[in-house]
Design goal:
This protein is an all-alpha fold and 219 residues long. It folds into two domains: 18-109, Cytochrome c-like domain (Cytochrome Bc1 Complex, Chain D, domain 2), CATH 1.10.760; 118-216, Cytochrome c-like domain (Cytochrome Bc1 Complex, Chain D, domain 2, Orthogonal Bundle). The protein has ten helices and no strands. The chain has helices spanning 2-44, 46-49, 66-71, 74-83, 98-109, 118-122, 131-146, 165-168, 173-182, 203-216.
Length: 219
């Protein structure tokens, strides 16, 4: 009986050693990927998005923002880097290749401070509403920063181009809805729902805005 117990302990110790080695190897690989991403970021992105991805109002958004990293999927980030955003100062970086772009995303993720809920956000229902009402709300509340046509910095505002296909073709309704509701800390994008919001928009009014934004990408 003692021999059996001894063998079991040895086997368990061996399994734990293998698991620990695997964790250490994965951690080392992750650290290596982040280091590679930081180097690539500094070479290709920092000139606009600033060191440490803090962004610059009216010029380039923060990519280290906790709320952004919490709701943006890897697909959203990678495809934006790959394709850029036509009509803005964000060029495509497809020449870097998928592995390098993934490394940049890993570096951006290293700034994350909130749980990643991108899958849950993207799974939210499709927005349904009245684009005519959405246009009214947009013009009253959003256009000052994002431009009347949603073309962002090109209109002289401090907000990004949320009315152009480069954004709308990649952002889910849940992504837009969550951003409008809660905003992004340490940026000029404040939340627009609840007593602390710049405007206490209802869920339906927010959906009206989303539906209106979708019409802009078709023009």
């Amino acid at each position: 009986m003692l021999n059996h117990n001894k063998v079991a302990v040895q086997l368990l110790g061996g399994v734990l050693a293998v698991l620990l080695a695997g964790i250490q190897s994965a951690t080392a690989a992750s650290s290596s990927l982040v280091a590679k991403g930081e180097k690539l970021y500094n070479q290709n992105c920092a000139v606009c998005h600033q060191p440490d991805a803090i962004g610059k109002p009216g010029f380039a958004p923060s990519l280290a923002n906790p709320e952004l990293l919490s709701i943006a999927s890897d697909k959203f980030l990678m495809s934006t880097i790959r394709d850029g955003r036509v009509g803005t100062g964000m060029p495509p970086f497809s020449h870097l290749g998928r592995k390098s772009i993934r490394a940049i995303v890993a570096y951006l993720r290293s700034h994350a401070k909130l749980p990643n809920k991108a899958d849950k956000v993207d799974a939210q229902r499709t927005a349904y509403g009245d684009p005519r009402l959405g246009k009214q709300w947009y013009n009253d509340i959003c256009a000052t920063c994002h431009g009347v046509k949603g073309n962002g910095y090109a209109a002289g505002g401090t907000g990004t181009a949320i009315g152009l296909p480069g954004f709308l073709n990649k952002a889910s309704d849940g992504f837009i809805r969550t951003t409008i509701k809660y905003g992004r800390s340490n940026t000029r994008m404040r939340g627009f729902q609840g007593p602390s919001g710049l405007a206490n928009l209802s869920d339906q009014e927010i959906d009206d805005i989303i539906v209106y934004l979708r019409t802009l990408s078709k023009k």
